[in-house]
Amino acid sequence: MGQGGERRKFLAHAVQGVAAAACGGVAWNALLVQQVHAVPFALRPPGALAERDFAAACVKCGACVVACPYGTLRLAPAATGIPLGTPHFVAREEPCRLCPDIPCAKACPTGALDREMKDINASRMGLAVIDAENCLSWNGLRCEVCYRVCPLSGKAITIDPHPRKLSKHAVFVPVVHSEACTGCGLCERACPTAVASVRIVQPSLVQGHVGEHFRMSWKPEAAPVEASPEPPPSAPKPAPAPPGKPGNAPGLDYFNSGSPP
Question: pTM of the predicted model, to two decimals?
Answer without folding.
Answer: 0.68
